[in-house]
Amino acid sequence: MSQRILVGTRKGTFFVEKVNGRWKPRLAGHIGAGVNFVARDPNTRTLWAALGHGHWGAKLSSSRDDGATWKDAPQIRYPEGARHFLPPPPSETGEGEGAPTIKDATLLKLWCMNFGGDGRIWVGTIPGGLFMSEDGGATFELNRALWNHESRGGDLFSGDGTGTTRWYGTPAAEGEFAPGLHSIEIDPRDPRRIWVAISTAGVFETRDGGESWEVRNQGLVMEYAPNPEDTWAGHDPHAIALCPGQPDHLWQQNHCGVFYSENGAASWKKVSSPGDGVHFGFPVAVDPKDGRTAWLVPGKSDAQRVTVDGSLFVARTTDGGESWTALRKGLPAELAYDVVYRHAFHNAGDTLAFGSTTGNLYVSEDRGESWEGVAHHLPPVYSVRFG
Amino acid sequence: MAHVELTSHLYQFFPTLEGQKIVVDGASVREVVDALEALAPGFAFYVCDERGRVRQHVNIFIESERIQDRGTLTDAVRPDSRVFILQALSGG
């Protein structure tokens, strides 16, 4: 089966297709625009791109002719009355100063998308919003149960809520310090069961299609907080990914390690191995069938955010994180400072692909054993998705 | 009738406006933006956010004066005014 890789970059959308046995990249649209995420809706075959135009704001773009032409989709807007607590930004001493303020919500960023088996389209945004369409993307509505979650400060549509928030911010918020929803994982067995992950709040799960949400941070740690095991506050999962064949198996990397759950995120187990360089990073790819098998592109601590010792490698586990193997064949062993962002690593079958901030794109067709560089001069890569 | 001049960047998203002499009714900047929205659906959300405020990195001028009211766009537009909608340069 022919495979295609959809690549969102800081300066446009690219496709990487296999032509006569070779992976070949080409510009596919949105030249000059930031493309945070590109994905294909398997229900309708529509391609979607989440754009950030800088001056002109965040816009959804779609293509119904497989990328030949793109046009603005109906746009996502926060509804009238949508307000949120804005935490005080960190000061030079590291502490936020003053009380949170209440702010009218406006769309800062479209960050991720996913598609349910029931045809629903889900979009994650900044500030901390989850939007859903039940009509193929003609209209989107804010999920109010998550927006009004107690951990966030309660219902600000009808009042002033609880007066405080446990949701903090991300520097990815286009100039503000607001939370961002970057991961949406949908249970293939039941599209009403969804996990989302938010920087900075943590993981939440719904089992009723988004009518109610439970916090799922048990077992995660925050070494940067006074109470590192507090399950409410301040967790910063960089991305979560589930195993489609075993959806109770979920993975994430964050500031404080690599974490694995085999019980639907009811609890997480730290499975880092700093001696193997496996501790800090952004994306994770999970085997489609075996939830114990996952791949990471490790980085060197949140203080540096570069490759470990200037050497680019992929780490793979096949035993739920008990052991890790460094896969280096075809990847640069020195003077490589590629960082791979949270959406820029994906897999389909035995094929894996990742793109980096330095414009490199690598593909493996043998489960990570060997890698081929298929592009080296792309704009910084934001997202990589097969589709 | 206000005479509207757009940064060429906006033609990338609204190619039907390119090369046109854009003349619209409007006694305020809000009315001018509304008229442009009618002419090119989707236009207003490029220039303003969902609360109707001019986006941070967009500038609107009436003749050579930057508009005062970026929140509700009440600045008056005279019948022969030229209105410029431009990107705000932030340096770099």
Automatic annotation (TrEMBL), chain A:
InterPro entries: WD40/YVTN_repeat-like_dom_sf (IPR015943), Xyloglucanase_GH74 (IPR052025)
Sequence segments annotated as region (Disordered): 80-99
GO biological process, one term: xyloglucan metabolic process
Stored Gene3D superfamilies: YVTN repeat-like/Quinoprotein amine dehydrogenase
Domain of life, source organism: Bacteria
CDD domains documented for this protein: Sialidase_non-viral
Stated name of the protein: Ycf48-like protein
UniProtKB/TrEMBL annotation, chain B:
Organism domain of life: Bacteria
InterPro entries: Beta-grasp_dom_sf, Mopterin_synth/thiamin_S_b, Sulfur_Carrier/Prot_Modifier
Stored Gene3D superfamilies: 3.10.20.30
PANTHER family noted in UniProt: SULFUR CARRIER PROTEIN CYSO, SULFUR CARRIER PROTEIN SLR0821-RELATED
Stated name of the protein: ThiS family protein
